[in-house]
Amino acid sequence: MGIDHGLITRLGRWILAEVGITPKALVVATREQLEGDTHNTSAIPAPAMKDTCEFLEEDCADEHGLKIQFPMDVEGAEYVFFPAVSDYLLEPDTLMGNAAVMKATGGSWTIGTQNFDGINYGLFYSDRMLGRIVSAEVDEVRRLKARKILIGECGHASRSAKAFVPTFGGDHPPPVVNIMEYTYDQWKAGKLKLKASVIKERVTYHDPCNIARSGWITEQPREILRHICADFVEMTPNRRDNYCCGGGGGTVSIDEIRKFRTTVGGKTKADQIRRTGAAICVAPCANCKKQVAEVCQDNGLDVRVCGLHDLILRAIDAPDFMRVDPVGAGAETSAEGA
Amino acid sequence: MDAWIALARGPLFRVALAACLLGLVYHVVNTLWMIRQSHQRSTDKDLPLGTVAATTLGHLLPFRQRRPIQTIAGVAFHAGILLVPVFYVGHVTLWQPSFPIPWPTMGPAVSDALSLAALAGLAALVLWRLLVRTSRELSTAADVAVLLLLLAVTASGYWAAHPAASPAAPRTMLLVHMLAANLALFLTPLTKIVHCVLAPLNPLVSEVAWHFPAESGAHVALALGKENEPV
Fold it and tell me: What count of other Cβ atoms lies within 10 Å of the Cβ of residue A4?
């Protein structure tokens, strides 16, 4: 019939929020983001976020031999970066992959220390909260005199910005770009080199509802994965028709219902992944990553769940200026060592 | 009996058809008017009409559906219920003398096949609503009653055209068919059958509805006296 259940659910949640029936976790996270000291849903202080980024820079050099950088509060950059803030706690490889792409392509970007969270729980709350959170995001872009919003690998953050910055972003709202769109465009333009078939494990791709259901981002990650993976297989159905991971609508944050969420709500996804025989499931969304990982765990699937940029980090054909040991320097070092 | 049949195919049919058409026009105009009003109020007026059109087609065409039984039953039922009343030669000859315009017609063989497929589809959908728990929980009595009414229209029409197979006298069956069809027409704008004109607008309604007026949250807060209330 084309009846939009998401819209009905959203209006129902708004009414419930206004009469005071709101999940405690939602209230706490939104309060911290809008009125707390840290301005983000995970209550990560800016110094802790900066420490994490410095650690990731060192770790990337040690583990991957790549020099990356997380620019902070750079005025006049093209992009201000807003990942799901939980990525700073849980997804180091995704963030390193994001930074590696920006470094390799000479991307003009920055992280704003006043607001670095792409999550918008206002979408689950009311227009008032939704609007305040979007406005705060746009304010950070304007404070830094940047031009665009760059969202990390998060379906929820991407959709809430893409759909609502034009409404709540004031005059001339900044365009919203997902990091996968940026990476794909740079790769297609020849500014990003990726090694072909370097990922040997069988890989499948889960379409996050928030970016795929509308047909917004479905082909870009697939093209990249077909290039860098030796054995890429599709789930069925996929793209706009893909099944939800089972953790949508914020339910992924409710640990009390994990068993239901993974063995009932997530069973279809588990069956879908099992049929692919994949060793790696790419789920470029903070919510989906957590849910699909728990679905695999609770349904006895030995599958690693990661983001797209986790694999790009392994596949990037880095230019010399990014390498800790530039091509050719390794031989000289060996000769000197000998 | 003849007087009752004359009443059913004359005044009652005209009243039912007029109620049906006026009701459907009202629903469409009202919906389009509300879409326009919502769009005017929205802050972001950029509508992805191409996506809306693709979504609409996706819902109207059965190819993307993932439930084969309902899809087959639904297509069979809709094909019969939409095509036979409009193109069956026995129906066309009733109104063509008053409106002598060229009109394609289908013969009894095609009409019979479509009617039988529609009956099978309707029966499957009724059973689905009654026997499958998830469907039963979501169904109202009106949902089942509407399907039973359409089942009565189709079955009585088939029997009226095939007196040998009819469980009742042919004229009686014809009267039942006409009365049931008139009732279905009359109820079209008043029941879920109205989806015949509103379903194609649903994706556009939803898209417009997602384009909020920026100040609506503040207005609600003001109305509730919550404008300065913290989270």
Answer: 17
